């Protein structure tokens, strides 16, 4: 092993010189020079024309999705389920004054109140779920 100490240096400087990593070897003349070129990217494509976008959207607008209204939920023991008869009442956790949930394709999209239109039930939408929340729920 070669002596890494330097003449005239203090013991602390000699200790640092011994522990210091060696410098990388100098480049030799045999190595080719490194050249760099500017990156060349193809131009970005323009967004589709509005007519093309509308045509694609029209395809989606014709899809049919299941819509359900959820009045509430509860859990029942099997014995209570087997005891259900005509006229039995099942109580939900949700209060009568609370809005019902509008479920589209298995995801809650809105809340509303039950209304009667002639002889049919309907829902008056009172609250839409925020768009960001609806998009987030798509991944679930």
Measured between the Cα atoms of the first and last residue, the distance is: 65 Å
Q: Average the pLDDT over all residues and give the rounded result.
A: 80
CATH homologous superfamily of the domain at 64-140 - what is it? SpoA-like
Counted beta strands: 4
Q: What Rg is obtained from the alpha carbons, in whole angstroms?
A: 37 Å
CATH topology of the domain at 64-140: Surface presentation of antigens (SPOA)
How are the strands ordered across the major sheet?
1-2-3-4
- Main beta sheet strand tally, sense and closure: 4 strands, antiparallel
Share in β-strands:
15-25%
Low-confidence stretches: none
Q: Supply the number of helical segments.
A: 4
Question: Can you tell me the overall shape?
Answer: elongated
* Helical proportion, percent range: 10-25%
Order of helices and strands: HHEHEEEH
CATH class division of the domain at 64-140? Mainly Beta
CATH architecture of the domain at 64-140: Roll
Task: Supply the key terms.
elongated, alpha+beta, about 140 residues, about 25% helix
Walk me through this protein's architecture:
The protein has 140 residues and is of the alpha+beta class. It has a domain at 64-140: Surface presentation of antigens (SPOA) (Roll). The chain has four helices and four strands. It has helices at residues 11-19, 50-61, 78-82, 131-138; strands at residues 67-70, 100-104, 107-117, 120-128. It has a four-stranded antiparallel sheet with strand order 1-2-3-4. The longest helix has 12 residues, at 50-61. The mean pLDDT is 80.
